[in-house]
Design brief:
This protein folds into two domains: 196 residues, no CATH class; 172 residues, no CATH class. The chain is built from twelve helices and eleven strands. A six-stranded mixed barrel has the order 2-3-9-5-8-6. Helix 3 packs antiparallel against helix 8.
Length: 402
């Protein structure tokens, strides 16, 4: 029997049993749609969360700090030694000092972080409003603050511009006498202007250009961001720095752990969808079994006219394959449409409460292809037993069957 004849006989179900066939396909579509919806939700959440905390540079960066178990200083000499390590592309130090920030008649203690503009890219920092300062002379008195600092000084996100603030560093006294716990107050010269805001509700800190502490004798770094040229250099550079006695951490480690958690979540979500697909597959198996019983005499006639068991096998398996494939295509439509409706509803609610628009769903193209392939396989697997039974039916018994 020619392939075109098998295809014509396999699609005859849409004419003879249209309602039952469509309902069977819809059942498969619902199961596939549930899988696509839930797994796309997992991918979307992963992309949404990790996309907000990572940049390509931050994933290739290491955080180097002084270990509590050693007496090593993290200073300019240490930074220069790290910079000479093979595989290191550039470094960016950070100095964190308690400070008093003053605005008009309001003063409060905050943490002053001194860093170059490179630090933000390596850290993966994102400003909610405004922009980062640069290394130019025009930006030497520009600062970035956390949103918590704005509330501390009763400033709104639309009223901070043009405000001049002053800083007094509360640097610990390093003398060895009885007053070693006292602080040296160092006034930073000039007025500083806020040009950017970082979303942070729980910490009061500001970022200032590194040039603001030039000539103050402050040489102890809180940490150093180390950027490597390639991901293959991360482990060798980290191992070398650890051997020198420093503590090293990497954002890529946290991202990898988060990805493992998301992978587990995606598998769990997919299992819920597979339960719905199994129910649909049982319905499809029932449809194919009923089709076998209804067409027993027809199978006997076909065999009497010369059709072989392989032809009957191919006909039934073709029906199951077509149902599975169309169920997969319908499931993709249901899953994608369900995601769009869910996104629209959530964003509508977020807009009502003043939130930002987000996309909770993301579906890789390869996963769509895999879903269609899986749905087709389910169709073939479900139709395998009915097709086998149909192929083995005795011609004479089939002709007598009523």
């Amino acid at each position: 029997m020619l392939i075109i004849d098998i295809f014509r006989l396999s699609t005859r179900m849409f004419r003879s049993n249209r309602s039952r066939t469509i309902l069977t396909i819809m059942g498969i579509s619902v199961g596939i749609g549930a899988i696509l919806f839930l797994v796309s939700l997992g991918y979307g959440l992963q992309r949404l969360i990790l996309g907000q905390i990572t940049t390509s540079d931050s994933l290739l960066s290491l955080d180097v700090s002084a270990s509590d178990l050693t007496s090593l200083n993290l200073d300019s000499n240490a930074a220069e030694n790290i910079k000479q390590v093979s595989g290191v592309e550039r470094i960016s130090p950070l100095v964190s000092i308690p400070a008093r920030m003053s605005l008009v008649n309001i003063s409060s203690e905050i943490v002053a972080n001194f860093a170059n503009s490179d630090f933000f890219r390596l850290e993966g920092t994102v400003v909610e409003q405004g922009d980062f300062y640069s290394e130019s002379q025009e930006d030497k008195n520009k600062i970035i603050v956390s949103s918590s600092v704005l509330r501390l000084f009763d400033l709104g996100e639309d009223s901070y511009q043009g405000k001049n603030v002053n800083f007094t560093l509360l640097s610990p006294n390093k003398s060895s006498d009885s007053e070693s716990s006292a602080r040296n107050n160092i006034d930073l010269s000039g007025d500083f202007q806020i040009i950017g805001i970082i979303e942070e509700e729980n910490s009061n800190y500001v970022y200032l250009p590194f040039s603001a502490i030039d000539g103050l004798g402050i040489d102890d770094y809180s940490k150093i961001k180390v950027k490597v040229g390639h991901k293959d250099n991360l482990d060798p550079v980290r191992d070398y720095i650890i051997e020198q006695g420093y503590a090293v951490s990497a954002l890529s480690d946290i991202i990898e752990q988060a990805n493992q958690v998301f992978r587990i979540a995606q598998i769990a979500l997919a299992l819920f969808g597979i339960v719905a697909l199994l129910v649909s597959a049982i319905g499809m198996f029932n449809t194919m079994t009923i089709a076998l019983l209804e067409r027993t005499q027809e199978i006997g006639i076909m065999k009497a006219l010369g059709a072989t068991g392989v032809d009957i096998w191919n006909m039934f398996l073709g029906e199951a394959t077509i149902i599975g494939f169309l169920g997969g295509v319908g499931g993709i439509a249901i899953g994608l449409l369900g995601g769009e409706i869910f996104n629209y509803g959530v964003n509508l609610l977020a807009a009502f409460f003043g939130g930002e628009k987000v996309d909770f769903f993301w579906t890789p193209f390869w996963f769509i292809f895999l879903v269609v392939l899986f749905s087709t396989f389910v169709g073939v697997a479900t139709g395998f037993y009915p097709a086998r039974r149909a192929a083995k039916i005795n011609c004479l018994e089939a002709l007598r069957y009523k």
